[in-house]
Amino acid sequence: MHEYYRKNKGKLQKEMDGYLKLVRSEIEAVFGKSYPQAFAEIWSCYEREMLEHFPFIGGDSSSGTRNLTGCMFFVAVGVVGKKYGLSTNDWGRLATTLYERHFDQMPRLLRRLAGGLFNHCPGLVAKALKKKDKRNAENAAKNPGSFLTQTMEPTAEYTVIYHNLVCPIYEFCKERGYMEYLPYMCNLDYVMFRAFGVSLYREKTCAAGDGLCDFKIKRGAPIPDVWPPHILDASDPLK
């Protein structure tokens, strides 16, 4: 285990608990035991099978680190839940519910402000994303395998276009055998943008073997549903 993760185990355990408590009753029903007992089993799996093997991708200086550690909280529930009869699809629905509740906790005003930036100030968003591209590139030069992104020029249809070129979550899932969970994790992006009132439209994901994930904000379009996962339907143009 990298020293960064060793030092932050307590913080990560507390963060995981904060997320999983949002679906406490559902976890107890699946596991057939009290939440503290179920959580202890999930954390043990996370620590042993995931935290022990995470690559170092910048630590606190990289926002992508929290994306990696946080996404795998969800996957740990699926891995352990499988022993109790939790199917991958039912896990995906549970993860979606959890993430919806997470954003429901966010003050409505804050969500409206975030969405307003995307919907009404796309130039400012693009400028901020380009700065993030630069920071990600500098971090990736020091820590290979870190997130690498590229902000594209807007079009008449899409006001913000953002590509994720390298995804450590995808690489970790591929390496460790968790690819069955990845499509559902990619789909959670729709949950976040829906909570902000923003129309995310995408056509490519790493989970589908496209080599990148695209994030496109479509001007004046309906906000896509968050379930069922777009990527799992071959006829659905939104991955």
List keywords for this structure.
239 residues, four-stranded antiparallel sheet, 10 helices, 4 strands, globular, ATC_hydrolase-like
Structural class by SSE content: alpha+beta
List the uncertain runs: none
Main sheet characteristics: 4 strands, antiparallel
| Computed CA radius of gyration, to the nearest angstrom | 18 Å
Sheet-strand content, in percent, reads 5-15%
Number of helices: 10
Shape: globular
Distance between the termini: 34 Å
Mean pLDDT: 96
Strand numbers in spatial order across the main sheet: 1-2-4-3
Overall number of strands: 4
Order of helices and strands: HHHHHHHHEEHHEE
Helix content: 55-70%
Q: Short description, anyone?
A:
The chain has 239 residues and is an alpha+beta fold. It is 56% helix and 9% strand. The protein contains ten helices and four strands.
How would you describe what is shown here?
The protein is an alpha+beta fold and 239 residues long. The chain has helices spanning 3-7, 9-20, 24-31, 35-50, 63-81, 88-104, 108-120, 122-142, 168-176, 182-195; strands at 148-152, 158-166, 200-201, 213-218. The protein has a 4-stranded antiparallel sheet with strand order 1-2-4-3. The two termini are 34 Å apart.
Please describe the topology of this protein.
Layout (H helix, E strand, L loop, with lengths): L2 H5 L1 H12 L3 H8 L3 H16 L12 H19 L6 H17 L3 H13 L1 H21 L5 E5 L5 E9 L1 H9 L5 H14 L4 E2 L11 E6 L21
Antiparallel strand pairs: 1-2, 2-4, 3-4
Helix pairs in contact: 2-5, 4-5, 5-6, 6-10
